[in-house]
Amino acid sequence: MVSKGFSLTELLIAAAIVAILGAVAYPTYIESMQESRRSQAQQEMLQVAIILERSYSRNGGYPDSDTFTALPVLEMYTFKYEHLNKPENGENYTSRSYLLTATPKTGTLQESDPCGAITLNHIGTQGAEVDDCW
User: Fold this and answer.
1) Exposure winner among 1, 22, 79, 134, fewest CB in 10 A?
2) What tens digit of pLDDT does each residue of 12-41 get?
């Protein structure tokens, strides 16, 4: 007698193979997506750094944190700009350095990124919570 179709054993074996492949592929997919989003945040930070350097060359200093509004908005990251090395009683655009920080937003898939918050300062020094994230 010739049977048509698949036996239950064959279907279970096929389902097990698909499950194993999915278990291997899913973490790699998540890691790849995190790297892609981190790269996007880094590119946004570099664009902000260009704006800040242009401001420095025009005004002789970096703007105060409360007056600088050119920070990007991304779904997975929160950006922060801090002006540093400002003279006492200095006016706006008298800061001599800055620090940009991109922090993964809580409750997003990016929150589990091992690199955590990434930083960029006025001399181009790039940082993260672990090495090899830039």
Assistant:
1) 1
2) 999 999 999 989 899 899 899 999 999 999
Q: CB under 8 Å to 125, separation ≥6 — which residues? A: 119
φ, ψ (nearest 5 deg) of residue 127: -140, 160
CB burial class (10 A; 0-12, 13-18, 19+) of residue 79? Answer: middle
Taken as a whole, the chain contains a residue count of 134
99 — pLDDT class (breaks 50, 70, 90): very high
As a whole number of angstroms, the longest Cα–Cα distance in the chain is 95
| Nearest of 116, 112, 111 to residue 130 by alpha carbon | 116
Beta strand 118-121 pairing with 126-128: antiparallel
Q: Which domains does the chain have, with CATH numbers?
A: 8-127 (3.30.700)
